[in-house]
Amino acid sequence: MSAVIAITNQKGGVGKTTTSCALLAGLQQMGNRVLGIDLDPQGSLGFCLGLDIDNCATIYDVMKGTHSVRDVIVESECGHIVPSNILLSGAELEFSRPGREFLLKNALTELHEEYDYIVVDTPPALNVLTVNAYVVADGLIIPMAPEILSLLGVAQIRETIDTVRRCYNSRLKVLGILLNKYNKRFTLNREVLDMAEQIADQLETKVFETKIRTSVSVAEAPAHGESVLTYAPSSKPAEDFNALIQEVIQEFGSEAN
User: Fold this and answer.
1) Residue 168: inside a domain, yes or no?
2) DSSP characters for 90-139?
3) Residue 205 lies in a domain
4) Residue 85 banded pLDDT, cuts 50, 70, 90
5) Is 107 inside a domain boundary?
6) 257 within some domain
7) CA–CA distance, 18 with 11 (Å, rounded to integer)
8) What does the pLDDT look like over 219-249, one tens digit per residue?
């Protein structure tokens, strides 16, 4: 069975897509079968991996019921991807029928034996798309930047997580809060870490030991259609993401035991 990980924060610019790409690349390099699902109407995951997201079938077609999920899978350097584009932006209004929270889960049922890990990149919002990701996920990773507004976004996720656990997916677990663009020399970064640890306690989780350091390579990688792990494998962020992957794998391993 696949382990499904959703990368989530309603605040934009916190590194969700960068984290999704890195997880896919790193897990694949370890020999795992990986699938990335882009639930962001901006299509950032596919775009950052060099896909032509405007001229292919997408997760929108799957959720609408006009394509099977197998029909829309595209190969990339970081494994298989189900892309997204701007058509998905109407999901909140268009997907209004009963059971809409289970559209993604139902679509992925046939694939769970084919992949070791499925990584879902969510939009910067708490809407029906985010709820679909939470319903199918085994675990959530919450990236955040070391800034106060990013913290606010994390705090507001709790109610949605509690609702999904209560109504749709009792097994949902927050794997941890991930600090991106981190520099421990800055006072604000250290202060945000302290506050993030308090929020992690409220979510019954932790702040990952691994913090992702900043580097120009993170910004450059999408322009080359690559993850930072393949574009700059010797960079500090690549080193950090590899360490994060070990933490994530251990988390799932401990649950299995």
Assistant:
1) yes
2) GHHHH--STTGGGHHHHHHGGGTTT-SEEEEEPPSS-SHHHHHHHHH-SE
3) yes
4) very high
5) yes
6) no
7) 14
8) 999 999 999 999 999 999 999 999 999 999 9
The burial class, CB within 10 Å (0-12 / 13-18 / 19+), for 33 is middle
What does the alpha-carbon distance between residue 156 and residue 150 come to, in Å, rounded to a whole number?
Answer: 10
How many angstroms separate the CA atoms of 190 and 72, rounded? 43
Range of the domain at 248: 3-252
C-alpha distances out from residue 58 to 26, 170, 203, 217, 228, Å: 24, 29, 32, 28, 24
CATH number of the domain bearing residue 178: 3.40.50.300
How many whole angstroms separate alpha carbon 174 and alpha carbon 60? Answer: 26
DSSP code of residue 10: S
Which of the 8 DSSP states describes residue 187? Answer: H
How many distinct structural domains can be found in the chain? 1
202 exposure class (CB count in 10 Å sphere: 0-12, 13-18, 19+): exposed
